[in-house]
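Hello,

Our lab assistant flagged a job as stuck in the queue for most of the afternoon. It eventually completed. Since we weren't sure the result was trustworthy after the delay, we are filing this so someone can double-check. Below is the sequence as submitted and the structure that was eventually returned. Let us know if re-running is recommended.
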Amino acid sequence: MPVTMVYDLETVPDVALGRQLLGLLDKTDVEVASAMFERRLAQTQGTSSFLPHHYHRIVAISVVVATPEWIKVWSLGDLDSDEGEIVARFFEGVQRYTPNLVSWNGAGFDLPVLHYRSLLHGIAAPRYWEIGEQDNGFRWNNYLSRYHQRHLDLMDVLAGYQSRAVAPLDEIALMLKLPGKMGMHGSEVYEKYVAGELESIRDYCETDVLNTYLVYLQFQLIRGLIDITTLNTEKERVKTFLSHSGKTHFLKFLEAWENHG
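-- returned structure --
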């Protein structure tokens, strides 16, 4: 049975790139970030300040890793790890386990950002980039092709690959009586980062991957790949991990989950 790795990442503006491209050499990081957001708003005629993929710098990657023997939820690296280290750790996991990757909007956002940041840091990931040259099995099922299953973007698949049908993770989680967003929203990440609250960002990211994993289990049920007994067993395994974790945000997630149920 293959390893399953659900992942999510949190980003902030790459102010080093923004400072270079916008010629803001004498400005502070916060001033550069503000200019980047304002420029994006102008480009989108006021509809969005969300930056293009290559303007993002990764500050957290959280994962749920599930095997037949164990399940674990954590953020890669530690509070002192730089971007290159946490990105390298993500691809080292792919290299070591060849897991089935699961995400919510990973194809549309997370993976392209990871591509650009691994390009910047020179991080080799031959297993991830394999499309059949060295391993023929990857010709028909790899991480890069949209309709292959080594990377399952739940948002994309559930929407039938139709942008008009896309739904937010938070709302789907709540529909399934899961906790949904906890502690903050993605739009608040930069504010928290500037305030030095990286630990709370990592905690938030970990609850997001928990929601995604639990939605994934429900998806496996409707695909007929697991039955209701297995689904309930897997949910209990997650609850056991959370209850034994000793971490406040996990215990709050468990409490909210049980209250919603």
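-- support follow-up --
The delay was a queue issue, not a problem with the job. The result is valid. The mean pLDDT is 95. Residues 198-222 form the longest helix (25 residues).
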